[in-house]
Design goal:
0% strand, 75% helix, mainly alpha
């Protein structure tokens, strides 16, 4: 419990610090989100060709690629967590807003801010504990159960990275909802291509 209280205090301190440097931090996070999204897209393309090559090697040449299943499985969380903050920035996550739509604009704004604040704390907790797990996997030099024995910690490290970044993104959205003139909501580059 002590660890959780300290974590909450750290999150609040980071929120205060983020508020002070929000105008500088917002464009930086936007660039990081775009770079990570590009990485996720490249990994998706790689997995597509990797799985296609494995199917061809298995059925055409009777020579399956060793570790294809574990390799593909390890890359799936990386794809998700590299792109999770970008998706939040573009409001691409599925949401249940039936009740929110019934609220007056001011009440809706406060409800959205409350939901984002709760989500920030949940994501911060998940980021911290998944980081601890990834660090433990790195210390143990954990690998998959079958050859070629891929290391598991890089995949595990993508999870706290994604949760940490989405926490910052959601706090920037809280600031934007609180004072849109002082903290404009700057969506990532290329987000104008998405349909609302």
């Amino acid at each position: 419990m002590h660890e959780l209280v300290v974590l909450m205090l750290v999150v609040v301190a980071l929120m205060v610090a983020t508020t002070v440097v929000a105008t500088v931090l917002s464009p930086v996070i936007r660039i990081v989100e775009t770079v990570l999204l590009s990485g996720a897209i490249l990994i998706i393309v790689f997995v597509m060709f990797f799985v296609g090559a494995e199917v061809i090697m298995r059925y055409a040449f009777n020579a399956p690629i060793a570790g294809h299943l574990e390799g593909s499985e390890l890359l799936l969380p990386v794809i998700v967590f590299l792109a999770i903050s970008y998706t939040q920035a573009t409001r691409g996550h599925v949401g249940m807003d039936l009740l929110l739509d019934m609220l007056a604009p001011r009440a809706r704004r406060y409800a959205e801010m409350a939901a984002l604040l709760i989500s920030i704390f949940v994501c911060a907790i998940l980021a911290y504990f998944t980081y601890k797990l990834a660090y433990q996997l790195w210390l143990y030099d954990d690998v998959t159960m079958t050859p070629p024995y891929f290391r598991t910690w890089p995949t595990a490290m993508a999870i706290p990275l994604g949760y940490g970044l989405i926490s910052f993104r959601m706090y920037l959205q809280v600031l934007s909802l609180y004072d849109p003139e002082r903290f404009p909501d700057i969506a990532p580059v290329g987000s104008e291509l998405h349909a609302e």
